[in-house]
Write a structure and sequence with these properties.
- Keywords: Aminoacyl-tRNA synthetase, ATP-binding, Ligase, Nucleotide-binding, Protein biosynthesis.
- This is proline--tRNA ligase.
- With 547 residues, this protein is α+β, with helices and mostly antiparallel strands.
- Helices cover 35% and strands 24% of the residues.
- The chain has 16 helices and 23 strands.
- The strands form 5 sheets. Strands 9-10-11-23-22 form a 5-stranded mixed β-barrel.
- Bound molecules: ligand 87F.
């Protein structure tokens, strides 16, 4: 049963109000954690039938436009579309079935692909002793403030506090050291699908930054660097595939600067997305080559074919539920979610529209026809929802399914029954077409593919329009303040990056960072100089304000 739209509205308004109180100015770090208020979520009352619906109809949907207040629009959207419920631990969110089933699509796709590479799934515990966590002290140091600890069981303080995994290098690698003895034990390629906890103090945003999140983390070990290097890029291609092929979100693939790479890694590769509406870059997923850094720390050593000793070459790579947030932000509009067909939990919603004057046999025939379409589409693996509810008007139902982002709405009214046609309405463009019954089974899958392709193309055009090629500081600042990214020649120096971050911060906007050094580099002109330091440029870097 769907919730009463009025009740939902009230809850949304309350939750958004809660959020807004705590919201710092854009780019500003909150000083102190706000103590979460106990949740006051109201019972979602089932809808009452009858004449009240028309009045309620006007209240369904979002009260904020994407262009007017992006972050308010987003907070409202994720709740109203039933993806998320807020929780009384600040920075934690409930993923409702509409969100979780999209995560399952991402999981299935990625899981199938890594298994083809020979990666196996496993599960390691979520608790880490202090001693083990400190094995990689140097790399954890910067992250230490985000590690959450269990210090008490029942009423007794624990002898030694136990950390909750923020990532699992230290959990897994002591066992890699035990399991890897000979070159015959390599490669070792494990992945786990888990939750992790990072007690961040930056302002939380559903999906994008939460204190507990879901991810996969892959941890692999090889005999040679060449094998490790190859895998880093294969995995990064899969990440680009998740974003572009499933979520219809364009990304740039590249390498992180030394300042932005994972401190424990030899190098870090990344897929970078961008939210045009607030001008923020967002790291989509990272694939690291750890080199021999961790194998040396954890003693992951093997006997080589010629009876020598060598430390293993390792990679680690992770993709989180943040990916869903990027997709929601990219495609959503003032009516709600716009879901790319490949991840949409339901790809088509069929809505029969009987007239109040229709005879019972006519209604029955119409409902039978809806059932037949559902069966036929499901037999070609289309995910179908049907909405037979009689206590809502067609308009209310259209709004409801638009809010939830279903890619195609199929309408079947009395005239369509006479003409043996249906109406197909696209969520992404609003375009409608009449389709004869005998063509529905072929037209719907074709249209879904079209929508998928069009959504990516549209997002790609917007993304590309947000990349400004600049060579001077002034042009760089103009690009940033225009909510764009800047592709700029630079000297690839950490000090310069720090300096740029400071200098590009303004009263109401944070400083810019390198998002990545794109793998696809335009030619660097002879004598090109760094836009920020004037020193000889080494490459083109993509810069932006970012999450
Ligand atoms: C937070 C607290 C403690 C990120 C942290 O990117 C440690 C860490 O090591 C930490 N936040 N990281 C880096 C994670 C590196 C790497 N781990 C496997 C990934 C992908 C999956």
């Amino acid at each position: 049963m769907s919730p009463d739209p009025v009740a939902v509205e009230e809850v949304v308004a309350e939750q958004v109000a809660d959020l807004c109180v705590a919201a710092p100015a854009e780019g500003e770090k909150p000083k102190k954690e706000k103590k979460p208020k106990p949740q006051k979520e109201k019972k979602e009352k089932p809808a009452q039938g009858g004449g009240k619906e028309l009045k309620k109809e006007t209240q369904l949907g979002l009260s904020t436009k994407k262009a007017d207040d992006f972050s308010k629009w987003y907070s409202e959207l994720v709740v109203a579309s039933e993806l998320i419920s807020y929780y009384d631990v600040s920075g934690c969110y409930i993923l409702r079935p509409w969100a979780f089933s999209m995560w399952e699509v991402v999981q299935r796709w990625f899981d199938d692909n890594i298994k083809k590479l020979g990666v196996q799934n496993a599960y390691f515990p979520m608790f880490i002793t202090e001693d083990v966590l400190n094995t990689e002290k140097d790399h954890v140091e910067g992250f230490a403030p985000e590690v959450a600890w269990v210090t008490r069981a029942g009423n007794s303080e624990m002898d030694k506090p136990i950390a909750i995994r923020p990532t699992s290098e230290t959990v897994m690698y002591p066992y890699y050291a035990q399991w890897i003895r000979s070159h015959r034990d390599l490669p070792l390629r494990l992945n786990q699908w888990t939750n992790v906890v990072r007690w961040e103090f930056k302002y939380p945003t559903p999906f994008i930054r939460s204190r507990e999140f879901l991810w996969q983390e892959g941890h692999t070990a090889f005999a040679t660097q060449a094998e490790a290097d190859t895998e880093v890029r294969q995995i990064l291609d899969f990440y680009a595939g998740v974003y572009q092929e499933l979520l219809a979100v364009p990304v740039t693939q590249g390498q992180k600067s030394d300042k932005e790479k994972f401190a424990g890694a030899l190098y870090t590769t990344t897929v970078e997305a961008f939210i045009p509406d607030n001008g923020r870059g967002v790291q989509g997923a990272t694939s690291h080559c750890l080199g021999q850094n961790f194998s040396k720390m954890f003693g992951i050593e093997f006997e080589t074919e010629d009876h020598g000793k060598s430390h293993a070459w390792q990679n680690s790579w992770g993709l989180t539920t943040r990916s869903l947030g990027v997709m929601i932000m990219t495609h959503g509009d003032d009516k709600g979610l716009v879901l790319p067909p490949r991840v949409a939990p339901k790809q088509v919603v069929i809505i029969p529209i009987p007239k109040s004057s229709s005879a019972p046999e006519q209604v029955a025939a119409m409902f039978e026809q809806v059932k037949a379409f559902k069966a036929s589409l499901e037999s070609s693996s289309v995910r179908v929802e049907t909405d037979y509810r009689t206590n809502y008007t067609p308009g209310w139902k259209y709004n409801h399914w638009e809010l939830r982002g279903v890619p195609i709405r199929m309408e079947l009214g009395p005239k369509d029954m006479d003409n043996k046609t249906v109406v197909l309405a696209r969520r992404d463009t609003g375009a409608k077409e009449f389709v004869p019954w005998d063509q529905v089974a072929t037209r719907v899958p074709e249209l879904l593919e079209q929508i998928q392709a069009d959504m990516l193309a549209k997002a790609k055009a917007r993304y590309d329009a947000c990349v400004e090629t600049v060579t001077t500081w002034d042009a760089f600042m103009a690009a940033l303040n225009n909510k764009h990214m800047a592709l700029a020649p630079w000297a690839d120096e950490e000090e310069v990056e720090e300096d740029v971050k400071k200098r590009s911060a303004t009263a109401d906007a944070m400083g810019a960072k390198t998002l990545c050094i794109p793998f696809e580099q335009p030619p660097l002109p002879e004598g090109a100089v760094c836009f920020a330091s004037g020193k000889p440029a080494k490459n083109w870097a993509l810069w932006g304000r970012s999450y």
